[in-house]
């Protein structure tokens, strides 16, 4: 997924957080919907630092799989 996103960015990307999720597509769809007003192009959004932090906290607390692959 990172390669797909990076290929569309002329500046490269920096991974701030990684999360293994049980339902990644549903969560991605929810986030795309919630932040649609901030979309610049395809997978790119213009968010504040606080919005990015809120997303990382949400991902950490929602449906995150443990290291052994279990919820």
Please, could you describe this protein's structure?
By secondary structure, this protein is mainly alpha-helical. The chain is built from three helices and two strands. The chain has helices spanning 2-7, 24-34, 49-61; strands spanning 39-41, 44-45. A two-stranded antiparallel sheet has the order 1-2. A hairpin with a 2-residue loop joins β1 and β2. The chain is globular. The mean pLDDT is 78.
Given the C-alpha coordinates, what overall shape results? globular
Beta-strand share of residues: 5-15%
Order of helices and strands: HHEEH
Based on helices, strands and strand pairing, what is the structural class? mainly alpha
Total strand segments: 2
Return Rg in Å: 13 Å
Instruction: Going across the biggest sheet, name each strand in turn.
Output: 1-2
* Number of distinct helices: 3
Main beta-sheet strand count, sense and barrel state: 2 strands, antiparallel
**Low-pLDDT residue spans:** none
Overall pLDDT confidence: 78
The residue fraction in helices comes out at 40-55%
User: What gap, in angstroms, lies between the N and C termini?
Assistant: 22 Å
């Amino acid at each position: 997924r990172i390669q797909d996103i990076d290929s569309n960015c002329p500046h490269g990307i920096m991974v701030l957080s990684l999360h293994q999720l049980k339902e990644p597509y549903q969560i991605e769809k929810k986030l795309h919907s919630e932040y649609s007003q901030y979309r610049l192009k395809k997978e790119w959004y213009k968010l504040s630092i606080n919005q990015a932090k809120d997303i990382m906290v949400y991902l950490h607390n929602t449906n995150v799989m443990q290291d052994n692959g279990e919820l």
